[in-house]
Design goal:
Helix content of chain B: 25-40%
Strand content of chain A: 35-45%
Strand order of the largest sheet of chain B: 12-18-17-16-15-14-13-20
Largest sheet of chain A: 7 strands, mixed
Largest sheet of chain B: 8 strands, antiparallel
Shape of chain A: globular
Number of strands of chain B: 20
Helix content of chain A: 10-25%
CATH architecture of chain A: Roll
Distance between the termini of chain B: 12 Å
Radius of gyration of chain A: 15 Å
CATH topology of chain A: Nuclear Transport Factor 2, Chain: A
Oligomer: heterodimer
Structural class of chain B: alpha+beta
Radius of gyration of chain B: 23 Å
Number of strands of chain A: 7
Chain lengths: 158, 437
């Protein structure tokens, strides 16, 4: 997988979230794909001994997305908007034989809902795999800098 | 001078409704900090958070910075986190280890772990002064009223009000039910704490812990999505833990009403005295065998079959025996509340119990929870809605019966708002207890 193509994939993934194209976003995940926001951020080793802000397989991500489409998702009145601002990704690891790689992408995330605005900072680790000619996300790990602090409700996907 | 005297406070809480000021008045919040949260017993932390001598946690209660320290003799002391000298905070991390002494970073005054003054640099400068005869010379101030029940540490900041056992009375078995889930009768805080800041008054949150009528409408979007995703599965299909925990939120009004509730003096309650949304979690034969071996069959069954929706140790703690989680309510301002959700490992119990504890907190009490999103949104709109004119009152009429005013412990239907009315009656009692007039 050439790097430029991978970096474009990361930017595309963030843009789908910013444009509320969640079904297309979910389709980027492999069947065993996960979206993981560890509670302790980058310091966290695993998901079984320490909790997470979110730790979701495709079933739970679907639940989140289907809820957002329901007009009775009360917190979506007015609808939440978000903007991901990404630094250029860097390649951490590449395994051409397995068609897998790991990328590191620092970010700032804005989420706006009515009068409320929240800003989160952190970095992503994307574990990407090539499946049937497509790039797929096996793990999107979101390491927030804001670990330990009390957080307001985060409605969408940092 | 406050415009709220004892009679004004009492007038805010009628037998079946409360005045909006209890949620929106900054002046009342200041009085709560001074009176209510000093006169009530507040949950501070769990003894397992400070296992070794010198271990500490810092907690702020009613605006007072506190320090809970494991002593050299194994006891626990709660000190005010301010140096006796100038007031600098002795430690500023959420948790850590002090070593054998507490040393102020500002001028290096040193204290023993019990707070007594050990050494002051260049001591000669104090010769002949009044230092040793005043508060400063006596070292760090300690909280006098500290009670530890099954490793849950509570404090009362004022000398007024009932002692620990009288204050909590018959709600304490809810903490036993949580601790007894361990075959060894011991819990350990593990897995980290989920911390939420919500822009609402703390009472709204605590009332909602006992609100069985809201899930159907407030959580409709989350439960409808869960039901749709699970539709078509056979009844006996093993549910992923997340589905096992989320689907019951969609139970109807009848279910919640029949689960039953009980109120106790001083604002405490147990919701789900008959059953709850937690009653249907899958059986764990090896764990049940370990419980039977530890407690005998009869007592083990009694522990496991009791799974209330929520027990409230008013006003700071909401407890679930199964899954093993507690929520801690920390008021920050009249319109801002910190909610912490803690997970426990029941020592000697099946790993699945710990995973249930963490999973429930993550799904329902995380800042990213799809269940909590609608609750939090509604609390924040109530905080704004109460500023509307026209009606200055909030309704607590559901199932009100004048006879309830003459009794303390009462067992009622699950939707009965006596669980909230009971909190407000205690609020008046402990707000006015130390007011002069």
């Amino acid at each position: 997988m050439d790097e430029r193509h991978l970096f474009e994939f990361i930017a595309h993934e963030a843009r789908l979230l910013d444009e509320r194209r969640w079904d297309e976003w979910l389709a980027l995940f492999s069947d065993d794909g996960r979206y993981w926001v560890p509670l302790a951020g980058a310091a966290q080793a695993d998901r079984d001994t320490h909790n997470s802000l979110a730790d979701e397989d495709r079933l739970l991500l679907s639940l989140r997305i289907e809820r957002l489409k329901n007009p009775r998702a009360h917190s979506e009145h007015p609808p939440t908007r978000c903007q991901h601002v990404l630094q250029p990704p860097s390649m951490l690891r590449q395994d051409p034989d397995a068609g897998a790689c790991e990328l590191h992408t620092p970010f700032i995330y804005f989420e706006l809902r009515g009068e409320r605005k929240i800003v989160l900072a952190g970095s992503y680790r994307h574990h990407l795999v090539r499946a049937a000619g497509q790039i797929r996300i096996r793990l999107k790990r979101v390491d927030l800098l804001d670990v330990g602090s009390a957080l307001p409700a985060i409605q969408l996907f940092p | 001078m406050s415009r709220y005297g004892r009679a004004d406070i009492a007038a805010l809480v009628e037998e079946d409704r409360v005045h909006r000021d209890v949620y929106v008045s900054a002046e009342l919040f200041a009085l709560e900090q001074r009176h209510f949260f000093a006169n009530t017993w507040t949950y501070l932390g769990h003894a397992s958070q400070v296992p070794e001598p010198g271990d500490y946690i810092t907690v702020e209660i009613a605006g007072r910075p506190l320090l809970m320290v494991r002593q050299a003799d194994g006891g626990i002391r709660v000190l005010y986190n301010r140096c006796a000298h100038k007031g600098a905070q002795l430690v500023t991390d959420a948790a850590g280890h002090l070593g054998r002494t507490i040393r102020c970073p500002y001028h290096a005054w040193a204290y023993k772990l019990d707070g007594s003054l050990l050494a002051v640099p260049a001591q000669a400068g104090y010769d002949g002064t009044r230092l040793k005869d005043c508060e400063t010379g006596r070292g760090l101030s300690a909280v006098k009223h500290v009670a530890i029940y099954r490793d849950f540490v509570f404090v009362k900041l004022s000398d007024a009000g009932p002692g620990f056992a009288d204050y909590f009375g018959d709600v304490l078995p809810s903490l036993d039910n949580l601790a007894d889930r361990s075959p060894q009768g011991r819990l350990r805080v593990e897995g980290g704490v989920l911390r939420n800041v919500i822009h609402c008054n703390w009472k709204m949150y605590l009332e909602n812990v006992n609100d069985t009528v809201h899930p159907l409408s407030a959580h409709e979007s989350a439960t409808a999505a869960a039901k749709a995703l699970w539709a078509g599965q056979p009844d006996d299909a093993p549910k992923p833990m997340a589905m096992e925990q989320i689907l019951p939120f969609g139970a109807g009004f009848e279910f919640f009403d029949r689960m039953g509730g009980r109120v106790y003096a001083n604002g405490h309650s147990v919701l789900g005295v008959n059953f709850s949304i937690h009653s249907g979690y899958g059986g764990l034969p090896a764990y049940e065998a370990a419980m039977t071996a530890a407690y005998g069959e009869k007592r083990a069954q009694a522990i496991l079959q009791q799974s209330p929706q929520n027990a409230v140790c008013f006003p700071s703690l909401a407890v679930k025996g199964s899954p093993q989680v507690v929520r801690v309510i920390r008021p920050l301002a009249v319109d801002r509340t910190l909610i912490e959700a803690w997970s426990f490992r029941a020592e000697g119990a099946d790993e699945v119990l710990f995973q249930r504890s963490m999973t429930y907190n993550r799904l329902v009490f995380s800042p990213m929870s799809v269940v909590a999103h609608d609750d939090v949104h509604l609390f924040e709109t109530i905080q704004r809605g109460l500023n509307a004119g026209g009606n200055e009152w909030v309704s607590l009429h559901r199932d009100f019966n004048r006879a309830e005013l003459d009794q303390e412990t009462q067992t009622v239907n699950g939707a009965n708002e006596i669980l909230m009315r009971n909190q407000f009656r205690a609020w008046v009692k402990f707000m006015t207890l130390t007011m002069d007039e």
